[in-house]
Amino acid sequence: MGLDFGSLIAKTNRYKEVLQNTITYRKQWDTDVKPIVKSTLEGFIKQTGISAKVKEQDKINNLEAIILDLGKSASGISENMEDTNIKRTMIKSNGALVYQQLFNGKIMIMIVSPYIEGYGDPKPPINLEILRPEELKQPFIMRHLEAFLKDITEWEDYDDDEPQKSSVAFQPIGFNRPLDLDDE
Q1: How does residue 160 score in pLDDT terms, banded at 50, 70 and 90?
Q2: Is 13 helix (H, G, I), strand (E, B) or coil?
């Protein structure tokens, strides 16, 4: 009595295809992804004059990253140490745009928002998207740069100009109509 592996054969073939994709994607990191990401980010620095560096993290093969790093700077904030005239400067990490090769060869694009060390907790990285190497074209990188600039600009320009939606003082009364005090 023979077993029917019909549905499992299709699933096994899909699994083999995914394994082959990982091998292909990993090769594309070196041949396609790194050159276009590095040249685009370096061109961005050159054209805009922004203070940044393009860094490569390649200590672990097939989990490499290319990072547009805005570096660190003095935040302008310092902590007065108790019973001394010593001040501890708080360092600001200015943010980064990261292209990280995943275990399966796909590329995860993340934004690391600015933060001040010792002043609250940094936000978790923002995952913009995960792409296959052949999907990562220059227009995508430009879109990532726009999202990155938006994030770091909003962080630097933080305020509470937007009215709070939960504020009781600004909640409409009744059927979304303002209170008419002339009816009394």
Answers
A1: low
A2: helix
